[in-house]
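Fresh eyes needed here. Have a critical look at this protein's tokenised backbone.
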Amino acid sequence: MYQQISVTRSGRNEHVAIVTMNRPDKLNALTKVMEAELREAMEAADRDDTIRVVVLTGAGKGFCAGMDINELEVLPPGDIRAAQWMRPYDMNRRADYQTRYGYFPAMRKPVIAAINGAAAGLGLVFALYSDMRFASDKAAFSTAFARRGLIAEHGISWLLPRVVGPGHAADLLYSARKVPAEEALRMGLVDRVCEADDLMAHTLAYAEDLAENVSPRSIGVMKRQLWAQPFQTLAEATQMANAEMFDSIQSEDFTEGVAHFIERRPPRFSGR
């Protein structure tokens, strides 16, 4: 159904969807076709109640090497403001994330980036918009923008300091240097580093644990809390938590969470 991405399920757990950017001969460099397909696939996964976790990765040796240079050369300046890329306003999502790639934090499901190779430019943007980043020891990272005469695009100037701190963010943006996986781990740019051959197995094992043993309702609420937090005071975050706690205690997943613990059996969460 897709030309430049693929969507599959984990062989061990149908609740885990794997979205793969699939232009391996171009290190999965982004095109308009891939961009549209990626958004369509991610939003479809969010609507599908059988999917509880999404893993985003790249085919071959790269994660995503940024925008395809052939398309970048002819990119019209107005494209960055084009209305069709913005997510329509949804009262269940924060207006702060009505941006081109705001559908990542707007999803109810956690998105784990399995970064198997180069993540540069927009590839790094996709990784930062994900909830967690697991990297191969062969992965490398670069903002790339300054070396193309561009600027910190798509909110990366807001995201990056919150992930690695202002000093590291300035370094990565100004120099656009290549950062190896181990350095990325030390600065907090990624959460885990695995040997290349083990990356997908490790990422899927983590994703499958979330899908099998954790309430999808709880994760959806917690994800909304985490992405709302940068815009809240402590009081506002607490008020939001109190309101959500009131609802969670009345949910099916809370009843099941207590029952499976008392009965010493695997959980059967419904997500309601």
